[in-house]
Write a structure and sequence with these properties.
Length: 479
């Protein structure tokens, strides 16, 4: 595999005025000749997130010559443990969903000697804007009623039209809610938490027919002590990763694949594309020839949700230290933030607020101090005057504006289906393979889905190679 600097590419006539020109065949072959010497075995993996790392490790183990090209200056993509608050805080994915031994991430947790802690969802403290702390029997009533609404949803999903959204199903139900205003606000909070926060989207953006049809591993939702990035760092160890290389174009021909980055051009036999759905939707990375209509349609149809996190460090906890989550019922769930104190995991006086969908995106257009104030106002409703007027330190994410993610994770939008994930996963020609959470139809939107998709793409390449070798051997035999 060979990496050409922009200058060398220009000299070689490949780049003219920043444009990739049609590469003369002879020259193309010359570039290829300086490759690793492993005939047909050079692979560029685009993206050093979980999918890219999983693919690269598997391909390297199978003897491929792999370069990972990553736009950021760190591995992990949407897995990102930040240390700026003086303690590890996961600003991307935080949970391993399902800590059973089937979950491949748990195998790595054990292999790397890491420890995890289950989130005790029962230890959720709830408050109402007008009433204060919610008593157990009120919460039980809320939960019972909200669960029966969900049962009704599940019953009607199979026969539902493909274009209907969760809002179509829920808005009439919300309008007809009667009785105690606290219970009504609680039901709406409960459903927004279960449906909207979970899928990083608004009711209107989620398919009614396909909502919650993805599968889950059994076991608890667990947090990695010390941060999720520890898994990433160990996976990245030993791989050839080119950080700060932004891919602009991926060109495929009968002879190979050319990856055009802002740092130069790389030529290889095959490529694994793990660009997030949000980045693919934007269309900034060009494919040559262009992607199939089928793929373009699926990219357009699937939804990309946004989740943002507001991490606040305080001088000391003002909350019950064994609580795992706080929620505030309000007249509207529009600006709902769910709060996760870090005290049960690390003992540190840090709270992380989770926002989703439209609200999460809107916060990216607001000054950081104002976002922090929104969170502090909520916390004051819950914990009164013990809440200070400012946080000692804070971090607020912008996953939607982030040019390397353009959102948090995918979901099935109205009009889409799980088939769209399978379409995204299909190889493009013989040389370009796709991985990433939005290519896994069973576990989309998750870190373990991303991991499995990377392994699948690596297996596809290896399978093709051995099929080709088999065909070549058969040709030899028939001579
Ligand atoms: C706030 C938040 C909370 C989440 N919570 C959870 C959770 O608790 N549990 C869970 O399982 N999942 C969670 N997720 C989802 C999970 O993080 C993702 O599904 C998973 O990490 C995706 O991995 P990936 O490899 O498919 O994509 P990514 O991690 O996005 O990797 C793609 C890589 O490609 C790089 N890239 C993009 N464009 C270019 C370019 N032009 N050139 C070069 N490189 C480029 C990116 O920088 C990135 O490193 C969360 C996500 C977010 C954002």
């Amino acid at each position: 595999m060979n990496m050409l600097s922009r200058r060398a590419a220009l000299k070689a006539g490949i780049l003219i005025a920043g444009q990739l020109m049609i590469v003369p065949k002879g020259l193309y072959a010359a570039v290829n000749a300086s490759a690793s010497g492993k005939e047909g075995k050079s692979v560029v993996v685009i993206g050093a997130g979980m999918a890219g790392l999983a693919a690269s490790r598997r391909l390297s183990r199978k003897g491929y010559d792999v370069i990972v090209v990553e736009g950021r200056d760190r591995p992990g993509g949407r897995v990102w443990t930040d240390h700026s608050l003086g303690t590890p805080v996961d600003l991307g994915a935080a949970w391993i969903h399902g800590d059973s031994s089937q979950n491949p991430l748990m195998k790595m947790v054990h292999q790397y000697g890491l420890s995890t802690q289950a989130t005790d969802w029962e230890e959720t403290w709830l408050f109402d804007i007008g009433y204060g702390e919610i008593e157990d029997d009120t919460y039980e009533e809320i939960q019972r009623k909200a669960e029966s609404i969900l049962e009704g949803i599940y019953d009607r999903q199979q026969d539902a039209g493909n274009r209907r959204s969760m809002a179509d199903a829920l808005v009439p139900i919300f309008k007809n809610l009667s009785g105690d205003p606290i219970v009504k606000r609680g039901i709406r909070w409960w459903l927004a938490s279960q449906i909207e926060t979970e899928y990083a989207s608004d009711f209107g953006d989620l398919s009614f027919k396909h909502w919650d049809m993805d599968e889950q591993y059994s076991g608890d939702d667990v947090v990695v002590h010390g941060g999720y990035s520890q898994i990433i760092d160990r996976m990245a160890d030993g791989l050839n990763i080119k950080y700060g290389h932004v891919v602009n174009k991926i060109s495929q021909s009968a002879d190979g694949v050319m990856i055009v980055t802002d740092q130069g051009v790389i030529q290889c036999d095959r490529a694994v594309v793990t660009l997030p759905l949000g980045v693919l939707k934007q269309g900034r990375v060009k494919f040559e020839p262009g992607l199939t209509d089928e793929k373009i349609t699926s990219i357009g149809r699937l939804g990309m949700g946004t989740m943002n996190k507001i991490a606040l460090r305080f001088a000391k906890p003002f909350w019950p230290e064994d609580a795992y989550r706080f929620g505030l019922f309000n007249s509207s769930t529009e600006n709902l933030i769910e709060y996760f104190p870090m005290t049960p995991y690390s003992g540190e006086p840090v709270i992380v607020g989770l926002t989703r969908g439209r609200h999460a995106r809107s916060l990216e257009t607001v000054k950081k101090e104002d976002v922090v104030q929104q969170a502090l106002t909520d916390l004051k409703f819950m914990f009164g005057s013990s809440v200070p007027n400012s946080a000692v330190e804070s971090v607020v994410t912008s996953w939607y504006s982030d040019e390397f993610s353009r959102g948090a994770y995918s979901h099935v939008a109205p009009g889409a289906s799980f088939t769209d994930y399978r379409t995204l996963a299909k190889p493009f020609g013989e040389r370009i393979f796709f991985a990433g959470e939005a290519t896994h139809a069973t576990y989309p939107g998750t870190v373990h889905g991303a991991y499995l998709s990377g392994e699948r793409a690596a297996n596809e390449i290896a399978g093709l190679q051995s099929a080709n070798m088999g065909a070549d051997e058969a040709k030899e035999d028939s001579r």
